[in-house]
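Lab notebook, entry 287. We have the chain sequence and a SMILES string for adenosine-5'-triphosphate, and the next step in the workflow is to get a structural model of the bound complex before anyone spends time on docking refinements. Request logged below.

Task: model protein plus adenosine-5'-triphosphate, output structure tokens.
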Amino acid sequence: MTQINSDTNDDAHEERLPRVIAVVNQKGGVGKTTTAVNLAAALAACGQRTLVIDLDPQGNASTGVGIPANRRKVGVYDVLIGECSLAEAAFKTEMPLFDIVPSTMDLSGAEIELVDMPRRERRLADALNQAKSESGPLGYSFILIDCPPSLGLLTLNALVAADGAFAPLQAEFLALEGLSHLKRTIDLVAERLNPELALEGIVITMMDRRIRLAEAVAADVRAHFGDIVYKAEIPRNVRVSEAPSHGKPVLLYDLNCTGSRAYLDLAREFLQREGLLPGGSVKVVAA
Ligand SMILES: Nc1ncnc2c1ncn2[C@@H]1O[C@H](COP(=O)(O)OP(=O)(O)OP(=O)(O)O)[C@@H](O)[C@H]1O
Ligand SMILES: [Mg+2]
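Result returned:
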């Protein structure tokens, strides 16, 4: 196993634990699940205990970390309807510091079932707050919520529960329009339901610098959204797309591929922005 050491400012960080980040973009197939899983794995490799909540009925994050549908007896649906706590629904992955609350079949009906429930857009936030009040910060530094490709009630639950939103973006035609729409939705949720919320990060995924349109779109996104766009870009890399079928984050599948290195860079930058890493002092060590 490979582990990564980092210098962290633990005291300041501990007070606001865990940081809850919604990985969100209403556009399908832009790399939300890939980013939630692989950023979580990279954060775990940096020594940060991280939980992914698979809030997408497709269940790709759960499958992608080796929890097949037949092993998922409980999941985030049970948490949303108040049948079980977040801790009870958390599964361990192959990485010691990386857990996941999976999606189950029932989640497909949740968008409709939630409509008639009290506090329908706050159910996940309530579950998180209850977990925190019962057992402190839950032992996690970060909770990443993998959202479905829509702005329905499940995504709304993620945005209400989150401290910040993080948007993966594929540099292609109309990407900027989609992102502006997402930004407006986030601002609206911040105004009405969760004043803590802001679009804190954008990461360009599946980048292919040989495609001139991708270069142009990436430049536009950087010009329009400025510093919230991460310097780290995730390249299109076949190892990244193969890893989920082996039930592994790409770091465990092929540590040295360009995709793994990009997700480690993304995690370093993320931790720097969180004030947890002074100037890139993470080093990979064999354990
Ligand atoms: N960096 C990458 N290189 C190559 N393939 C990638 C990369 N990132 C994602 N993919 C592939 O692109 C597809 C879409 O990615 P992913 O499932 O992460 O997107 P998503 O936004 O979660 O999709 P959905 O909206 O359906 O939930 C997947 O097949 C994934 O393996
Ligand atoms: Mg997905």
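Notes for the group: Strands lie at 2-5, 19-23, 50-54, 91-92, 98-101, 142-146, 164-170, 199-205, 283-286. Worth checking against the assay data. The longest helix spans residues 175-192.
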